[in-house]
Design goal:
Elements: E1 3-6, H1 16-31, E2 35-40, H2 50-63, E3 69-73, H3 78-90, E4 94-97, H4 101-113, H5 129-137, E5 143-146, E6 154-158, E7 162-166, E8 175-177, H6 185-195, E9 200-204, H7 211-220, E10 227-231, E11 234-235, H8 251-256, H9 261-269, H10 284-290, E12 301-302, H11 305-318, H12 321-331, H13 341-347, H14 356-361, H15 371-380, H16 387-400, E13 401-402, E14 405-406, H17 408-418, H18 422-434, H19 442-449, H20 451-464
Parallel strand pairs: 1-2, 2-3, 9-10, 11-12
Antiparallel strand pairs: 4-5, 5-8, 6-7, 13-14
The chain binds glutamic acid (GLU).
Glutamic acid binds next to loops.
């Protein structure tokens, strides 16, 4: 039975790169009738925060990436890691290292300067019992290092990267347990993957060089080695990993900007994977059906905001109008009578994200209407005719209003009689109603505002022209 996991460290908000990792691990489990597990790797007390754990859980829920087991918290499993450390001590596969972080950092710098790989040289593996005891009694702290360099070449077949080969002899012995007794990432993660029966480890490529260390630990315990799939990173500007300098990077930020969960998931799905279908927006079931981990591209995926926006627009258009009504009301913080089914029908085609709704629809609300401002916009427009003619146009328009729209023929007759350009005339009316050149059709605007409000507004504007 396939068992995959998502194992974020709750040290910040859910990054969209991690959300993609979660999605792929989830899809793979679903595709294979397996189980998807959430594990919070929160042993780093300095950097992990419970709020981040909660936020990650919240974001996964919002994205509909549902886990079958968990959330397991590593901070509640410290006793387990201690037991497994003792087993490694018994097997003589770890040693105590008394080198302080400052010493290590100094040596690292020296190594880098002289062009050598900055890896731990293994010196503490040689300490005698006597020396160790005297260091301990002098109060010196120590970490536990894994005798990784005793292992021969480690080779594995990554689902995406294909064959990967590492030589432990040149990689240094990693710390498994820190001086404060807290297990390091490699240790806790590996023990958990083993105990939780993870069959497929799907994660970001940034962790690729940790994998041989983890495989060695598993070998020490004679545990089965899972399949590994390292997903290429998501790149931002300048082919560098997507980060803050590229703008928004967290799921929460996208949510707050009015991206819909379905859009984000559909977009992430296509980062490095292209499903064999013409259909643009897929349901989660379709995503599961088409998903093939083996076909994920090994080259980095470049984040493209305009593509995400396009997908979001499509998702908004395809959404059920009842659901949209609620979302629109939430984003506009209101349930005023203006936001009704008609409003949804009109504005769902005008926006790429829900947060654009406020600006796109502001003119519909009375507190978004300002006759002085509107008159200024009209006068500045290249469509502005002279004042008298403009007032005449507005008059004809008002007299063409009927209960649920306006009589366009009436306006066209006037245009013809005066020898005007239809574009200019209709643009002036549009500017008067919305103070902008683009937006919903005039008929929709009139219907949304209602003839009475239109009349009143034109009256006020006319005074300001
Ligand atoms: N906790 C690790 C991280 O967030 C990932 C663990 C893993 O997937 O192996 O970077």
């Amino acid at each position: 039975m396939v068992r995959t996991r998502f194992a974020p460290s709750p040290t910040g908000e859910l990054h969209i790169g991690n959300a993609r990792t979660a999605l792929f691990a989830y899809l793979y489990a679903r595709k294979n009738g397996g189980r998807f597990i959430l594990r919070l790797e929160d042993t780093d007390v300095g950097r992990s925060k419970p709020e981040y754990s909660d936020a990650i859980i919240e974001d996964l829920k919002w994205l509909h990436i549902d886990y079958d087991e968990g959330p397991y918290k590593q901070s509640e499993r410290l006793q387990i890691y201690k037991e497994y450390l003792n087993k490694l001590v018994e097997m003589d596969l770890v040693y105590e290292c008394f080198c302080s972080p400052t010493e290590l950092e100094e040596r690292r710098k020296i190594a880098l300067k002289s062009g050598k790989p900055p890896v731990y040289d293994g010196r503490c593996a040689q300490l005698t019992e006597e020396k160790k005891n005297s260091l301990k009694s002098s109060g010196k702290g120590f970490t536990y290092r894994f005798k990784f360099s005793k292992f021969d070449i480690i080779e594995f077949e990554d689902v995406i990267r294909k064959k990967v080969v590492f030589n432990p002899k040149i990689m240094g012995d990693p710390i498994l347990v820190r001086a404060d007794g807290v297990p390091a990432y490699n240790f806790a993660c590996t023990i958990d993957d083993m105990l939780m029966g993870i069959t497929d480890v799907i994660r970001g490529e940034d962790l690729l060089d940790q994998t041989p260390r983890q495989i060695a630990i598993l070998k020490a315990f004679n545990a089965p080695i899972p399949r590994y799939a390292h997903l290429p990173l998501i790149m931002g500007r300048g082919k560098k990993p997507l980060s803050k300098r590229d703008g928004s990077t967290s799921v929460l930020e996208f949510k707050q900007q009015g991206f819909l969960a379905e859009a984000l998931v559909n977009y992430l799905y296509r980062l490095g994977f292209s499903p064999p279908t013409e259909k643009q927006i897929l349901t989660i079931d379709e995503m599961i059906e088409y998903f093939e981990l083996e076909r994920v591209s090994p080259s980095p995926a470049v984040f493209d905001l305009s593509k995400l926006r396009f997908i979001n627009r499509e998702v908004i258009r395809l959404k059920d109008e009842g659901q949209l009504l609620n979302m629109f009301r939430m984003f506009l913080n209101g349930d005023s009578k203006e936001i009704d089914d008609r409003f949804v029908k009109v504005f769902k085609d005008e926006i790429f994200t829900l947060s654009e709704l406020r600006d796109a629809s502001s003119f519909i609300f009375d507190d978004g209407f300002n006759p002085n401002y509107t008159a200024e916009i009209m006068k500045k427009s290249k469509f502005y005719l002279d004042r008298i003619l403009t007032l005449e146009i507005l008059n004809v328009f008002v007299s063409s209003l009927c209960e649920d729209g306006f009589d366009e023929m009436n306006i066209r007759k006037f245009i013809e009689a005066k020898g005007l350009k239809p574009l200019s005339v209709f643009m002036l009316i549009r500017l008067a109603l919305s103070a902008r050149e683009k937006g919903p059709s005039l008929a929709d605007i009139v219907r949304l505002l209602g003839a009475e409000r239109v009349k009143k507004r034109i009256e006020l504007i006319s005074r300001c022209l």
